[in-house]
Amino acid sequence: MEIKKTNTAVPAALLSMVCVQGGASIAKQLFPSIGAIGTSTLRIGLSAILLTIINRPKFSTFTKQQWLYCSIYGLGIAAMNLIFYMAIQRIPLGLGVTVEFIGPLFLALALSRKWMDVVWALLACAGILFIVPWQNNDVDLLGLFLAFLAGVFWAVYIVMGGKVAAIMPGKDAVTTGMLFATAIIIPFALWDGALMNLTPILFLKGLGVAILSSALPFSLDLVALKQLPAKTFSILTSLQPAFAAFSGLIFLSEKLTILQWVSIACVITASMGATIFSKKT
To answer: How far apart are CA 35 and CA 51, in angstroms?
Structure first.
């Protein structure tokens, strides 16, 4: 029974990553027109609307604990997405995702109970150090800092996703979390004003981003988080940089150095090792 659950959880997490990075490539194409804040608002807001229509959660049945967990989960979603989009507006997608992964990496270390987990996490950490172009004076330090900050909220998202999935149906949790995220991000969009440049074509692209980057992957993540410990899920998500790098290369023509590709290989190896050797925790 445990094997079946794991077999369901891992494909769900992998498919989530494919969707997220494909959606991020489309999102980055929207930045010149509506900016990072406008794109993030469009992504989260449309996702919340779609999920509410499809899932129709019964809000009147929620407990105080469920409302609390959903609100913190929604904060993690809003901050993670908004800050990450601001980061990749300044730096390549693959680089941004790899630096962002520091959040889940340290979460994995904090939750570790076996020395082998530390080995895999440290290998992923080495990969992150390799991918940062330390010798390049043109590197955008603010972009790197924003990617790191997004990683902190990524860790919050993982922890709260696991907690909220344990006390309520996943579809209700992700829908309510997205509604909270929308409420949090709308003031930033009003302040920014870039959504005034929205056109029908941009709206359709934003809808694609909402489906690929939020509605579908967040639902898949809750399927995985319901079946996997937060530690295992955190290290598994280290595959994100590889998906991001290939997505950036294919859709955005963003090229990385050989050393940066080696670093991604380190992160992938750490992820595979942690997933293969991780047992019940």
So the answer is: 24
**Residue 171 burial (CB < 10 Å; 0-12/13-18/19+)?**
middle
pTM: 0.79
DSSP per residue over 217-252, as a string?
HHHHHHHHHHHS-HHHHHHHGGGHHHHHHHHHHHHH
Q: How many domains does the chain have?
A: 1
Q: Please name the residue ranges forming H helices in the chain.
A: 2-55, 64-88, 93-100, 102-110, 115-131, 141-167, 170-192, 200-210, 216-227, 230-236, 240-252, 258-277
Q: Would you state the structure tokens that stand for residue 236, as one six-digit string?
A: 């598994």
Average pLDDT over the chain, rounded to an integer: 82
Radius of gyration of the chain (CA): 18
State the distance between the two ends of the chain, measured CA to CA, in whole angstroms.
16
Q: Is the distance from CB of 188 to CB of 196 less than 8 angstroms? A: no
DSSP state of 132: S
Structure confidence by residue, pLDDT tens digits, 242-262? 778 878 777 777 777 787 788
CA distances to 103, 104, 121, 156 from 107, rounded to whole Å, are 6, 5, 10, 9
How many angstroms separate the CA atoms of 63 and 138, rounded?
A: 51
208, burial (CB in 10 Å: exposed 0-12, middle 13-18, buried 19+): middle
Q: Structural domain of residue 57, as residue ranges? A: 2-277
Closest CA to 111 of 278, 258, 226: 278
Phi-psi region of 169 (alpha: psi -120 to 50; beta: other; left: phi over 0): beta
Nearest to 75 by CA among 20, 151, 146, 153: 153
